[in-house]
Design a protein that fits this description.
This protein has 413 residues and is α/β, with parallel strands linked by helices. The chain has 15 helices and twelve strands. It is globular, with a radius of gyration of 20 Å. The termini are far apart.
């Protein structure tokens, strides 16, 4: 680790003192907030015992996207929820494969009804996820009647403005928070809207450092708070706090860092070997001990110095040696979309599933929004069962993921 990491505790403390947030305050907040996810599903329980069948366990290790704005027009999703015990779905506003503006999200009432019906149809409490970062990555848009959230870059500008005006060090700072009241109200509105609609997971905040402002998928889209890891830590912490207070699981992304890249993993392999810095781990190093209940999402980036063969989503070295062993992460690990070009164009479906699970991914995400496969659930579950029949994937390994994900629900049911 370089010198900036070695001096982090001093700079980190100064920054939080300036904003009215001591590390102990955020730690106390995290400990006082049990992660009670918004999982009401009409009486279904999230059983963590051995009474779960193998099908139920495998279903919980999968999250998919689907087409349909109502349950009646959603086709295979009813089958997937009831026959295959699917544990998670992700909703979108736009269908990329068909270039259609109609996918799942049309209006607040419609979205709330859809989520309610999905949960009622599921055989177990359902994870319902969305990418609602703010700015350019926002599935709940103003023109459809939703409250919108500024981008990460805009939130960082708001924070700087508060510091420059002195408001960040005045009485306007709420104790135990990392932001002036304006910023706090924005983040609370974001989380409250997700809670009202019925979501329980948001794939945010982005913990990537803006080390390459010309990065086509991070920097240019304003998805990073800053190139400074302390600023990223502070703002990501504020997002996490607001989400946890409203029963939404926040998921840090994209581990081990996507900010330095020059290309887009949606379209192909992204090599960060020569651009990545150990500083990109600092937000994770700061946040994960404070908020052990949150999730992390892997990146489809390859760093040949960390793993010469495969991207992070498929890398045991990156997930186990760095994320879990070095950083001590014990929470749920989500893959980025397994149908992105960086995975789909370089690895077969069976190979990518096998490598991701053996590396340590707990929930495989197939967004069905790069390509669309109505049978992705039975196909993936079939591969997982084949791997188990062959002894490649063990029930012990499956149970480890079940325990990490089930812990999210333990206090909320």
């Amino acid at each position: 680790m370089n010198s900036s990491t070695a001096t982090l505790p001093f700079h980190f403390l100064l920054l939080f003192l300036l904003l009215g947030l001591m590390g102990s305050a955020s730690q106390s907040l995290a400990q006082s907030q049990a992660t009670q996810l918004n999982t009401d599903s009409g009486g279904a329980t999230f059983d963590t015992t051995s009474s779960l069948t193998l099908d139920e366990k495998l279903g919980r290790m999968l999250m998919i996207g689907f087409r349909g704005t109502t349950l009646a027009e959603s086709g295979h999703i009813v089958r997937d929820l009831q026959d295959y015990h699917l544990g998670g779905v992700i909703l979108f506003d736009y269908d990329v494969p068909s270039k259609s503006p109609v996918r799942n999200i049309v209006s607040p009432n419609q979205t709330e009804n859809l989520i309610r019906d999905l949960k009622a149809t599921a055989t177990q409490p359902l994870l319902v996820a969305v990418d609602q970062e703010g700015g350019r990555v926002m599935r709940l848009k103003a023109d459809r009647g939703f409250e919108t959230t500024p981008s990460a870059a805009e939130l960082a500008r708001l924070l700087r403005k508060g510091k420059d005006s002195g408001s960040a060090t005045s009485g306007s700072v709420t104790p135990g928070s990392a932001q002036p009241d304006t910023l706090k109200s924005i983040l609370e509105a974001q989380a409250r809207q997700l809670q009202t609609l019925g979501f329980n997971i948001n794939f945010a905040p982005v913990a990537d450092l803006n080390t390459n402002p010309d990065n086509p998928i991070i920097g240019r889209l304003g998805r990073s708070y800053s190139a400074d890891p302390d600023t990223v830590t502070t703002l990501a912490s504020a997002v996490i706090q607001a989400h946890l207070q409203h029963g939404i699981l926040p998921v840090l992304k994209h581990f081990p860092g996507h900010g330095s890249a020059w290309n887009d993993t949606h379209l192909g392999m992204t090599d960060i070997t020569d651009t990545w810095s150990p500083d990109e781990l600092i937000p994770y190093r700061n946040l994960l001990p404070t908020y052990p209940q949150i999730g992390v999402m892997t990146a489809h980036v390859i760093h040949k110095g960390l793993d010469p063969d495969v991207p992070a989503t498929l890398s045991r070295a990156i997930q186990q040696d760095i994320l879990r062993s070095e950083l001590g992460f014990r929470g749920p690990l989500f893959s980025d979309d397994m149908q992105m070009g960086a995975i789909r164009d370089h690895f077969g479906l069976r190979e990518s599933i096998e490598k991701a699970l053996l590396a340590g991914v707990d929930i495989l995400v197939f967004a069905n929004n790069s390509v669309y496969d109505a049978n992705i659930v039975p196909t993936v579950l079939g591969v997982m069962k084949e791997l188990m029949d062959e002894g490649v994937l063990t029930e012990e390994r499956v149970n480890a993921s079940i325990h990490r994900t089930a812990a999210l629900y333990a206090d909320g049911l």
